[in-house]
Design a protein that fits this description.
Layout (H helix, E strand, L loop, with lengths): L9 H8 L6 E4 L6 H9 L6 E5 L2 H10 L7 E5 L5 H8 L4 E7 L4 H5 L25 H7 L2 H12 L4 H14 L5 H12 L3 H20 L1 H15 E11 L2 H15 L19 E3 L9 H6 L7 E7 L1
Parallel strand pairs: 1-2, 1-4, 2-3, 4-5
Antiparallel strand pairs: 5-7, 6-7
Helix pairs in contact: 7-8, 7-10, 8-9, 11-12
Length: 310
């Protein structure tokens, strides 16, 4: 049973994609298809959509859930870092809108066997694409203390990252760590966190491991660049991020691509002849309204940025 989720910032996404009937769009993070359905409705009667997701379960679900749009819908399992190759394979052209919603789907969080949630007991997995070889099991049991410490510090912003890494090392010497419940117990024991702070800390630990497993931050910049390359002139790219590390990457790349001269400050006359590739549609990120957060609490950390290709 596939668990669907409420699409975040749905009204804002459709408005800022600036869609017209007949436009072709790409949803790089298909999930349960909420955004994709709205895009297909906005671009009817003949606009096409390419839906991409690394998770084969999302592809299978959307093939049925969006079957009414089958004639206008192309689905592809893959990581958005391979966007250019997927677009070429599918011969998908004249793209006027691209969406990247970087959140984890409700299905992935709520199904225990996926291992994404500290609130569900299941095997350590956390892979978006379950065909990839390395999962959270390998990260937790095989990575050296220094590697684990770096992951927790960089991706989870955990102050006592090394202490946690040492705690994991001590436990895995005794026996292999295989479940989310075992990892939760190690975090609580290693960091002696106060009960009222436990969930926040555990969320950051699991986030850090998930980011490492799926190379999320590594893949983001090249995916954004590919999206800008794929877009047609005056096409729009919408990105929704959920933590500061992602948003910083998006913000900096957009700012760089929107600039003209990129010469260092000490050069008084431009020598690079760099031309801006995009214009910023949103100077500051769009965030969910209080009413959306109330009905969909998982949207609370969302930040949406939008650019238009020149």
């Amino acid at each position: 049973m596939y668990t669907t989720h409420q699409p975040v910032l749905l009204t804002e996404v459709i408005a800022h994609l600036n869609l017209r009937p007949g436009d072709n769009c790409i949803d790089c993070t298909l999930g349960s298809g909420g955004h994709s359905q709205a895009i297909l409705e906005a671009t009817s009667p003949d606009g096409r959509l390419l839906g991409i997701d690394a998770d084969s379960e999302a592809i299978s679900y959307c093939r049925q859930a969006l079957s009414v749009f089958a004639a206008r819908l192309e689905l592809a399992q893959g990581n958005f870092v391979d966007l250019a190759n997927i677009v070429a394979e599918k011969n998908f052209s004249s793209v006027q809108g691209i969406l990247l919603d970087l959140g984890v789907s409700t299905h992935q969080i709520t199904v225990p066997t996926r291992g994404f949630s500290f609130q569900q007991t299941g095997e350590l997995d956390m892979r978006f694409d379950r065909q990839q070889p390395d999962s959270a099991l390998e990260v937790v049991n095989d990575f050296k203390i220094e590697e684990l410490s770096s992951i927790f510090k960089k991706f989870g912003e955990i102050k006592e990252a090394r202490r946690l890494a040492i705690g994991i090392e001590q436990k895995r010497r005794q026996q292999k760590i295989t479940t989310t419940a075992e990892l939760v117990a190690i975090v609580k024991e290693s960091l002696r966190v106060r009960p009222e702070k436990a969930n926040q800390l555990l969320a950051r630990v699991f986030q850090a491991i998930r980011i490492a497993v799926n190379n999320e931050l590594e893949n983001l910049s090249p995916a954004l660049q590919s999206a800008l390359d794929v877009l047609a002139s005056e096409g729009r790219l919408v990105v929704i991020s959920y933590h500061s590390l992602e948003d910083r990457i998006v913000k900096e790349l957009f700012r760089e691509q929107a600039q003209a001269c990129q010469c260092p400050p000490e050069v008084f006359v431009c020598r690079c002849n760099h031309q801006p590739k995009i214009k910023l549609i949103t100077k500051k990120p769009i965030i969910p309204t209080p009413s959306e957060i109330k009905t969909n609490p998982r949207s609370r950390s969302a930040k949406m940025r939008v650019v238009e290709k020149i």
